[in-house]
Here is the input.
Amino acid sequence: MTVERSMLCWQKARELILEQSSPLGTETVELSSALDRVLASNVVSSRQLPPWDNSAMDGYVVRAQDVVEGQPLPVVGTIAAGHPWKTTLPERSTLRIMTGAQIPPGADAVIMREDASEQDGLVTFRRAPRLGQHVRSAGEDVRVGSTVLSTGACLGPGELGLLSAIGKLIVAVHRRPSVAIVSTGDELVTADEHPGDGQIVNSNAHSLLALVQKSGGIGRILPIARDRKDELSHTFREAFSADVVISSGGVSVGDFDYVKEIFTALGAKEHFFRVSMKPGKPLVFSTVEQQGRKTLVFGLPGNPASSLVSFELFVYPALRRLLGHPTALAAHPIAQVRLSEPIRPDRERTHFTRALVTRSATSPFELWAKPLSNQGSGMLSSLVGMNALIEVPPGEATLPVGSELSANLLTAV
Ligand code: AMP
Ligand code: MG
Here is the structure.
């Protein structure tokens, strides 16, 4: 949906970005560095799990048919985990067995210790067991030849444990995107310099680097580019060798806002400019193809809140997609929240209001959103403590306390 000539709604803008974003090529990594990476091929198990029948309980292992009410069985030994019992369980007898210990030949059921009483080497059972009771059978968890994980699976603690158990210690995953961070502006100095008259610290580079790192990308801060065409060309030419370029500043309608023009001059194809949202209206998205490689190029606005919000809504989904996450997982989780303070919507544009979302103390499924004070897009202090962006649709009337809105959750709540 186009809301104004040459201005897209944010959903359409994101759709166009995701259309241009596909999972990067593959590399192999060891399990110890595979957390949160996305599998680039199916994993088929060459082992079965459990590898052999074993006990699910601490107790006694028996032949089920040998257990008869009122007839105790002699205990002929103890099997600990890691110490297989090699000989056949003699008929009409039992062995103590521990959780995870191998079931000895001849036995077919385990009775838990709580259902048995042992005295003078004889054990009486409260009731007869079912055949196979408390026995974890070989292969019941994973069969040889079964696909345990499929392409697109995100490797978390559970997945990594499973991979180790089947001896798959090196996996093929999608590459992490390299991300060049470019800050533009004559007023900018690096954080280790003391800003002189008319100067400010290039704080965006630090916020953006953190966002890239949090999203799984490999960020690199390039030297600040002055608002001069030759300098911008030089810096962006270097930046275009990355998978993704995030630039901030210089994309608005100011006299020295050359970024958009330089992207085009360097051969980038512009997909859109300007999104009907607040903050972050001026936003250029382009792509460059060089030697069969595609680079996604984001020209974000310079105001700190605008660049941060634009990153969360547009760059984050693209990075996730490049990392191989299915589209549904490429965006932040959405939750229904209630306003704890009234909000005045913008008349024309969706306002992504920075907020702190917390759970109700009495009803844990209820989320309350407190808009952070001072939503000015240049306000750095308004970014402190933010964990959500509330989507406030355009409108005339003030939204009262308790109004229900949807929010992008940036961290777990
Ligand atoms: P621009 O988008 O270049 O017009 O910049 C908009 C506002 O954001 C101006 O007040 C800039 O000084 C500020 N700004 C631009 N780039 C940065 C940056 N890297 N870090 C902090 N503030 C910035
Ligand atoms: Mg500027």
User: Anything to note?
Assistant: The pocket of adenosine monophosphate (ligand 1) is lined by residues 183, 185, 187-188, 200, 202-205, 248-250, 252, 254, 301-304, 378 (CB under 6 Å).
